[in-house]
Design goal:
mainly beta; Immunoglobulin-like; 4 helices
């Protein structure tokens, strides 16, 4: 080696370079049993480290003011051939800490990927906890199994952990979770006794239980999250149960939270709120004063929004193709305003509610618009109904549009209801259905459109006929801000670095695209053949998958199959061979990259086989 010296300067620079290299911090290697008490950067690595129980995590983080960057490392808790319902253990535990930041960690194959306890101001960002624990369901496309129903009503002793979770937070105030990814599991982000946190820009989709769940957690912001297809208990055209799965779960004294600008479509319930067992046993409290604003909760097998035994604000949400757009049993003093309810069996349904305001909503092509009623008796073991007044009474309906809704109003056993101030009714069959007498129901100063399908002559003197034809009114309503004006004062400000959580234009949507297997909802990342209909002569299949080409590669029990090749989505018709004892079809796909139901990645252009058989 030749060194040219200039009064020793080159030698000095060379020495300084060697010294700086020798003292530069090096990333730490991950290993089981680490207790991290200072800021640490880990090397990117893939490690198989199992954990048998939640009490023996792979790693523990404990301290104050720490930043732990895992550098994209992947922890794997179970072998690739292990089924998800047998996953055990915990990857990372954060405990008794403050101001801890954890980022860039991937963990799969555990009962719980990350748990934090008694930690204030925790930040979790840019982590992927997909393909952790999930139950193997017994329901089939042909029949529901009642054992698949979930039960989240108690969590005083961490009962939720029996279902596993990607993230479980307990006693963690002022937490921030952002850019978390969870798919192919059961429960995503679950929290108990967590207040004043921010949970946003997360993608928690295609899981078989809950997207984000709150229990005794208040003053949180849950915003801008993608929470679609968190669902079970559904078979298109066969049964529509949901089995208490939900995009967002808000339970047991969780109040003053803001749920805004989330997409939780195609979930058992889009949003599921229940006051809690304490309220049922004492009549006290509830999940009150939450703001549910600007979300898309469409295509729910059961309820787009369920809110019960509580007082809340529900405004500017999109609720299309749900069994119930809003189910508000025992809701009181709640505001339901500027919501877009379309193609629902029931737009808004409330039993035993009182003091509620329903205004500026659009009910388009629903079977029933607003249904209000009360039962003759109450369950004897509900202390709530003994301590609280639960008559159906004191409703205000103003400035709503009912278009092509068969029965705009179904009101039974309700007192002091004012339907006035420019509600508009177009193309209905029966304006008001009354099963039981109502006391002081006033229906005046509304507009009834020309060409209404039903007879509204009984209301004509107090409700003038509108001049505009129905389609023009509907277009005008949707293209102006008329419905949003009354709720602008309560509209939450979007977070500064928020993303757009809504399903992109062109994405397949609708309940017919909820395909639930024994391991959870289909996620469009792999090819699938799904039996859609059958009779003695033919079977009809829906084929879905990534972009690419499929072809029929084999089969038995059919005399003819058409077409034999194509792209997704596709409908294939197969004529049944009456003499065959078994039917089966085999296909091959070549196209974009594929991820299997268990998270195995297959690169673009690889030949991927898929099949259907009985």
């Amino acid at each position: 080696m030749k060194v040219i010296r200039y009064n020793g300067l080159v030698f000095l620079l060379f020495a300084l370079t060697l010294w700086s290299c020798s003292t530069a911090p090096k990333a730490t290697r991950l290993q089981s049993g680490l207790i991290i008490t200072q800021s640490t950067d880990f090397q990117s690595d893939t490690l198989f480290i199992s954990s048998e129980t939640l009490s023996r995590p792979v790693l523990i983080i404990e301290g104050e003011g720490l930043t732990v960057d895992f550098g994209g490392a992947l922890l794997i808790g179970s072998k690739t051939d292990t089924l998800p319902n047998t996953f055990t253990g915990l990857a990372v535990l954060v405990r008794n800490s403050k101001n801890v930041t954890l980022r860039n960690l991937n963990a799969r194959g555990y009962k719980v990927a990350l748990m934090a306890e008694n930690t204030d101001s925790l930040i979790i960002e840019d982590c992927d906890f997909s393909y952790n624990y999930r139950q193997r369901m017994k329901s089939t496309p042909q029949a529901e199994d009642l054992s698949d129903w979930l039960y989240h009503h108690h969590n005083e002793d961490d009962e939720w952990l029996r279902y596993g979770a990607a993230v479980y937070l307990k006693n963690c105030d002022a937490a921030t979770v952002r850019r978390l990814r969870v798919t192919g599991g059961q429960n995503g982000l679950m929290m108990t006794h967590c207040n004043q946190g921010a949970f946003y820009n997360n993608t928690i989709q295609f899981n078989s239980g809950i997207g984000i769940g709150l229990y005794r957690s208040s003053y949180n912001q849950v915003m801008h999250n993608r929470l679609d297809w968190n669902v079970r208990g559904f078979s298109y055209g066969v049964y529509s149960r949901g089995q208490d799965s939900a995009g967002i779960l808000c339970y047991e004294q969780s109040s003053n939270n803001t749920f805004a600008y989330n997409s939780a479509t195609h979930s058992g319930d889009g949003f599921f709120l229940w006051a809690g067992q304490h309220t049922m046993d004492t009549g006290e409290g509830g999940c009150n004063d939450n703001i549910i604003f600007g979300n898309d909760f469409s295509h729910a097998p059961t309820n787009g929004i369920e809110v019960t035994f509580s007082r809340n604000i529900i405004a500017a949400n999109r609720l299309h193709e749900c069994r119930y757009g809003i189910w508000g049993g025992y809701s009181y003093e709640s505001l339901m305003s500027a919501n877009d309810l379309r193609n629902c069996d029931f737009g808004i349904a409330i039993e035993h509610g009182h003091g509620n305001t329903i205004q500026y909503n659009i009910f388009d092509s629903c079977a029933v618009g607003v249904k209000l009623w009360e039962r003759a008796t109450q369950p004897e073991d509900w202390v709530y109904t003994q301590q609280r007044e639960v008559d159906s009474r004191d409703y205000t309906l103003q400035h709503n549009l009912f278009y092509k809704t068969g029965i705009p109003l179904s009101v039974s056993g309700t007192s002091n209801m004012a339907v006035n101030d420019d509600n508009q009714f177009y193309a209905f069959e029966k304006l008001l259905e009354v099963e039981q007498p109502n006391d002081a129901l006033v229906l005046v100063k509304n507009r009834i459109g020309r060409g209404a399908l039903g007879d509204a002559s009984a209301f004509a003197s107090d409700n003038p006929t509108a001049d505009l034809p129905a389609p023009a009114v509907r277009r005008n309503w949707r293209t102006t801000s008329r419905g949003l004006a009354p709720v602008q004062k309560i509209q939450p400000a979007p977070l500064p670095d928020a993303g757009d959580a809504m399903l992109p234009e062109g994405h397949l949507r609708g309940r017919k695209y909820i395909l639930v297997t024994e391991w959870g909802p289909y996620d469009f990342r792999r090819p699938i053949a799904w039996l859609r209909a059958q009779n003695e002569e033919t079977m009809t299949f829906l084929l879905l998958g990534p972009q690419g080409n499929w072809r029929l590669s084999g089969g038995e029990g059919f005399t003819r199959v058409t077409p034999k090749t194509g792209t997704f989505p596709a409908t294939v018709t197969a004529r049944v061979d009456p003499d065959a004892e078994r039917q089966a079809l085999q296909f091959e796909f070549v196209g974009e990259a594929v991820t299997t139901a268990f998270g195995v990645f297959k690169k673009r252009g690889a030949a991927v086989s898929f099949q259907w058989d009985n």
